[in-house]
Write a structure and sequence with these properties.
This protein is α+β, with helices and mostly antiparallel strands. The protein is 30% helix and 23% strand. It has nine helices and 15 strands. 46% of the residues are buried.
Length: 335
């Protein structure tokens, strides 16, 4: 039987593809893998522990934090703090970015931005959730103190991005700009193995993912696009199928494998949309483009947007190129 290579072997083997390869990025990816295992274990037995339910405080987004949001945030921060590959981190669950100023971090070249637990509304009801991460080289010089500019870089500066999906199986999917690969966790062995090599969006998609409960609040362009996908047209396989889990990672993963579009547009209740540019949209946009798809805010390429705030939100149109271009057409024609 063909032996699946482990994530560790793959990271080392592909280190050469990375211009600055000295092993720090490989070590950083391994740290994320380690923290992911710890969070995965907690999620798998969440119902048997005190980890379900709300933590009793609000995060900077004004959302009630789930205990698992806090736990996952702590696990990733402490794992990365103890391993020295990064000089700072920003998270959905932290108001401001965190500088690691211990000596072992001073010369570290990378920073991480992350959504420790994505799909929080699904935690207590056992529906798939995830972790999203985005990695940049710092702009400030090693030895200097980390500053806001290090975190407010456009998405096209990312050196790596990915997610861990805690679903029927746990899969870590990432890119360093050389394609997208997925690794399934084997709990019996305790390792991630290459299971989804060189993931590409299929040529055509037939799935649309949007919270139609917000339909009345959507811009005209989105309303017309949704009506269009629901019309009958055998030639291009409409009506499309509606699939929406409430977890970005789960909807994105399905749509990347099967072909589809995920939309979180602006709305009268969320004038800038809901998803956060730095640790939700940028990493998914990097993966999307590496997998042959397209990702915009309805008009502009997500990866070209210049961030101004850590937790800023942007409208998000992501998926098969032709599907996103069709949605953009409706947005342009109905401005
Ligand atoms: O419930 P809504 O408004 O449709 O929003 C669902 C979206 O919000 C999110 O839950 C936001 O992420 P967090 O759970 O990390 O806050 C996405 O995963 C999901 O796609
Ligand atoms: Mg999220
Ligand atoms: Mg989250």
């Amino acid at each position: 039987m063909e032996r699946h290579i482990t994530l560790g072997e793959f990271i080392i083997e592909n280190q050469k593809d990375f211009p600055y390869a000295k092993g720090e990025l490989s070590a950083l990816l391994s740290s994320i893998r380690l923290a992911g295992k710890v969070v995965n274990q907690a999620i798998n037995k969440a119902g048997l522990s005190e980890i379900l339910g709300k933590a009793g405080n609000e995060n900077v987004q004004g959302e009630d934090q789930a205990k698992l949001d806090v736990m996952a945030n702590d696990v990733f921060i402490e794992t990365l703090r103890n391993r020295g590959e990064i000089c700072g981190i920003a998270s959905e669950e932290l108001e401001d970015y965190l500088i690691f100023d211990e000596d072992m971090h001073k010369d570290a070249k990378y920073i991480v931005l992350m959504d420790p637990l994505d799909g929080s509304s699904n935690i207590d009801v056992d529906i798939t959730v995830g972790t999203i991460f985005s990695i940049y080289r710092r702009i400030s010089k090693p030895g200097e103190s980390v500053n806001k500019e290090d975190f407010l870089q456009p998405g096209e500066n990312q050196v790596a991005a990915g997610y861990i999906i805690y679903g029927t199986s746990t899969i870590l999917v990432y890119t360093t700009g050389n394609g997208v690969n997925g690794f399934t966790f084997d709990p019996g062995i305790g390792s991630f193995f290459l299971s989804h090599p060189e993931i590409k969006f299929p040529d055509h998609g037939k799935i649309y993912s949007v919270n139609e409960g917000n339909y009345v609040h959507f811009p005209t362009g989105v309303k017309k696009y949704i009506k269009w996908v629901q019309e009958i047209d055998e030639k291009d396989g409409r009506p499309y199928t509606s699939r929406y889990t409430g977890s970005l990672v789960a909807d994105f993963h399905r749509n990347m494998l099967l072909g589809g579009i995920y939309l979180y547009p602006t709305g009268t209740t969320s004038p800038k949309g809901k998803l956060r540019l730095l640790y939700e949209c940028n990493p998914m946009a990097f993966l999307t483009e590496q997998a042959g798809g397209k990702c915009t805010d309805g008009f502009t390429r997500i990866l070209e947007l210049k961030p101004t705030e850590l937790h800023e939100r942007v409208p998000f149109f992501c998926g098969n190129k032709e599907m996103v271009e069709k949605a953009e057409e409706f947005m342009r024609d109905n401005q």
